[in-house]
Design brief:
single chain; alpha/beta; 7-stranded mixed beta sheet
Length: 244
């Protein structure tokens, strides 16, 4: 399995990190998890291209996770692609319907299949996925792809999600701010380290990074390491990880 970070940033631009987007692939299957601003561009830069993405899985509906969803639809239509599946938590159908109501000319351009999922098991793009509810300001789901990869979506750090991710080869976790930022709905490094303590995870990648984290990666890793002694790294746009 391969995981490609298309966007590792947040709602505040840095110029280096685009908004959230993650490609999960193996030899036959591709799913795009979240579709924030800049993800369409990153798809082309990655060499995968938007034509290869016929399934999108949304963690939640904040703008920095869905901004390129309609541009993706339009690009696929203009390229002659006929289908797109959009899967996400409750409210996903209303989101897609609302986008198409505003941009009426896009109605009926693609054969859209929209599905809403709840915590538990489901299948998307032939991947078996487990969903777990996170702690965020909108309904948000974390997703686990077997023992390969768990993606936290946006969330505070808490024990239930750490348990959900336990034994994953890769955990991609929101770590939006350093410790000295007073924040809710996202974790600080010390909070994340505390909940990961004692868990067996192959590697942790920190993502959803606000500009506040620039120049402070060493400090943030050290804060996590006070509690959790695993391999922790910062995700970078267009970085690809192969998981055996």
């Amino acid at each position: 399995m391969r995981v490609t970070f298309l966007g590792t940033g947040s709602a505040i631009p840095t110029g280096e990190r685009f908004q959230t987007g993650l490609l999960v692939q193996d030899a036959e299957r591709t799913v795009l998890v979240d579709c924030g601003a800049g993800v369409l561009q990153r798809l082309q830069q990655s060499g995968v291209g938007f034509e290869a993405v016929s399934s999108v899985l949304l963690t939640h509906h904040h703008l920095d996770h869905v901004s390129d969803l309609l541009p993706l639809m339009k690009a696929r239509w203009l390229a002659g692609e006929e289908h797109l599946e959009v899967v996400g938590p409750q409210g996903t159908k209303a989101l897609v319907d609302g986008l198409l109501e505003v941009h009426e000319y896009m109605q009926d351009r693609l054969e859209l299949r929209v599905r809403e999922v709840v915590p538990g098991s489901f299948t998307v793009a032939d991947f078996d996925v487990e969903a777990y509810e996170t702690r965020h300001s909108l309904p948000c789901l974390a997703y686990r792809f077997g023992d390969y990869v768990t993606f936290s979506g946006d969330t505070e750090a808490f024990a239930g999600l750490a348990n959900f991710a336990d034994s994953s080869a890769i955990l991609i976790h929101d770590c939006s701010f350093p410790d000295d930022v007073d924040v809710s709905n996202h974790p600080t490094p010390s909070e994340l380290g505390q909940v990961l303590e004692g868990h067996e995870i192959g590697r942790v990648y920190l993502s959803h990074l606000y500009p506040h984290t620039d120049g402070r990666h060493t400090e943030m890793r050290e804060s996590i390491a006070r509690h959790y002694d695993g391999d922790v790294r910062f995700a970078e746009d267009l970085q690809t990880i192969s998981i055996e």
